[in-house]
Amino acid sequence: MKVVIEKILNNNAVVSLSDEQSEIIVMGKGIAFGKKRGDLIDNDRIEKVFTLKNGDLTNKLKQLIEEIPIEYMAVSEDIIKFAKLQLGKSLNDTIYISLTDHIHYAVERFKKGLIIKNGLLWEIKNLYKEEFQIGLEALKMIEQAFGVGLPEDEAAFIALHIVNAELNEDIGNIMAMTEIVKEILKIVKYHFLIEFEEESLNYYRFITHLKFFAQRLVNKEFYEDDRQDDLFQIVKTRYTDSYGCALKIKEFINKKYRYIITQDEMMYLTIHIERVVKIH
Q1: Range scoring the smallest mean pLDDT among 46-50, 127-131, 185-189, 218-222
Q2: CA distances in angstroms from 91 to 19, 87, 96, listed in the order given
Q3: Which run of H or E residues covers position 7?
Q4: What is the pLDDT of residues 28-86, one digit of tens each?
Q5: Could you tell me if 65 and 9 are in contact, meaning their C-beta atoms sit under 8 angstroms apart?
């Protein structure tokens, strides 16, 4: 690959153009030292190449690289690669910026003795298990790179950034969604006086359903109501107790969030509740 410097961000990063003439960010230890615009970069010194499709994101990444040491970007990319491999899915490019910025801030805070507790640690560990495990692995990578042992709370924060990149939501929305799921689970738990079988497939399905419901609620989007009246009446009659629990949830959500759960949503919610509690 022929890399011609368009702009030098720092000694370790430059802006260049790809073969398709789209802007790329090229990184490597000391690749820009003693160089100027128009010079070629030795391919052997290139460690990482970033191509972001969104121009605004590319500009933010440039700014971040100018302000933050290259090591943070390198660790962040390793974590993102690991996350993509573990989850088997793509992540929104915004994570390159948000995660790098967070890791830098977290390490600097830790060095100053400032520890921030994550109020949703338990919920994140249980609702986003895969992402939390990636967060724990990320802590090992961070410790290896910077010699700091960040607490579990930070694994949970990293997990939220990954969830954010999966669902294309900002962190504030993800935390709000997590709180909503937590509240609904509590209603079901106390209605039936049960503990959930968290390793069961039905629990996983229920959590997945609740995550997307919470996403719609936070974004004020309503489930398309097909008015399946006959099926709704069958579900309502057959699963009386689960429907009663769904009614409690509907009342709570309406009262706290001013959000009306549609008839079809009530039907699917009832079915999921029935599935998740029937093993008891």
Answers
A1: 46-50
A2: 24, 10, 10
A3: strand 7-10
A4: 888 888 888 888 888 888 877 777 666 677 777 888 888 888 889 889 989 999 999 99
A5: yes
72 within 8 A of 54, measured Cβ to Cβ = no
Q: Which residues contact 271 (CB under 8 A, 6 or more apart)?
A: 235, 239, 242
**Residue 137 identity:** E
Only one residue has tokens 């009663």, namely: 244
Whole-number pLDDT of residue 47: 79
Asked if 26 and 11 touch (Cβ cutoff 8 Å), the reply is: no
Q: Does the structure show a pLDDT above 60 at 121?
A: yes
154-189: b (≥16 Cβ within 10 Å) or e: bbbbbbbbbbbbbeebeeebbbbbbebbbbbbebbe
Measured torsion, CA atoms of residues 108, 58, 81, 159, in degrees rounded to the nearest 10: 50
Helical (H) or strand (E) element with 82: helix 70-87
Q: Report the alpha-carbon distance of residue 226 to residue 163 in Å, rounded.
A: 30
Q: How far, in Å, CA of 142 to CA of 139, rounded? A: 5
